[in-house]
């Protein structure tokens, strides 16, 4: 059985790594005599729409085109944090007979006998709805805390005259710099690295790229 691994983290810098996900999934494949033919790794928010996640799109296209048996993902949230987007990906895989295995949840689209898992869509909907509610709660708490801070006389933003050291930018925007060095356009680099166009333009100018 041939498999592809897809791993994702939200951070575009070195704060997060896909190494653990890839290692765990390779371990699972090895124990189950599954041959991993390719690994896709993406640094982008799971809240993005499917079409805004180029590596995920490339991964699914590769699996379908090459008739890969199973796509290995560490947990459901790696596929996306929006219920509709996740369900759309699952449907596409179902329609093309591509199985997906979510390691944390121990769930897959197709069961051992080849039949569709009757609980998967229900599980996705419930889990996704809970995740969306939690995000809204976090957003509410952040906005509430920010409003109180301002009401108490606090000021948001950087101190006047502050400039981030170039060395810090080099680390923080490593992926942006890498894309620009490859000749990627400003807008494309911004989309791939999940930053604003103006940020990419500033990095391009500062590093003479």
Automatic annotation (TrEMBL):
InterPro entries: Resolv_N, Resolvase-like_N_sf, SSR_resolvase. Residues 2-153 form the Resolvase/invertase-type recombinase catalytic domain. Signal peptide: none annotated. It holds the Pfam family Resolvase. CDD domains: SR_ResInv. PANTHER family: DNA-INVERTASE FROM LAMBDOID PROPHAGE (PTHR30461), SITE-SPECIFIC RECOMBINASE RESOLVASE FAMILY (PTHR30461:SF19). This is Recombinase family protein. It comes from Bacteroides zhangwenhongii. The lineage of its organism: Bacteria, Pseudomonadati, Bacteroidota, Bacteroidia, Bacteroidales.
């Amino acid at each position: 059985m041939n498999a592809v691994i897809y791993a994702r983290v939200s951070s575009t810098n070195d704060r997060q790594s896909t190494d653990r996900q890839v290692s765990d999934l390779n371990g699972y494949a090895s124990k189950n005599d599954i041959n991993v033919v390719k690994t896709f790794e993406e640094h982008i928010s799971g809240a993005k729409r499917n079409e805004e996640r180029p590596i995920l799109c490339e991964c699914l296209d590769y699996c379908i085109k090459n008739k890969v048996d199973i796509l290995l993902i560490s947990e459901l949230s790696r596929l996306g944090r929006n219920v509709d987007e996740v369900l759309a990906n699952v449907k596409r895989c179902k329609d093309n007979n591509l199985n997906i295995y979510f390691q944390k949840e121990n769930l897959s689209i197709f069961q051992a006998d080849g039949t569709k898992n009757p609980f998967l869509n229900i599980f996705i909907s419930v889990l996704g709805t809970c995740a969306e509610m939690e995000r809204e709660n976090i957003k509410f708490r952040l906005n509430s805390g920010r409003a109180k801070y301002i009401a108490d006389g606090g000021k948001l933003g950087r101190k006047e005259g502050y400039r981030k050291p170039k060395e810090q930018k080099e680390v923080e925007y490593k992926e942006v710099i890498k894309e620009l060095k490859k000749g990627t356009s400003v807008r494309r680099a911004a989309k791939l690295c999940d930053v604003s166009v103006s940020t990419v333009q500033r990095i391009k100018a500062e590093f003479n790229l």
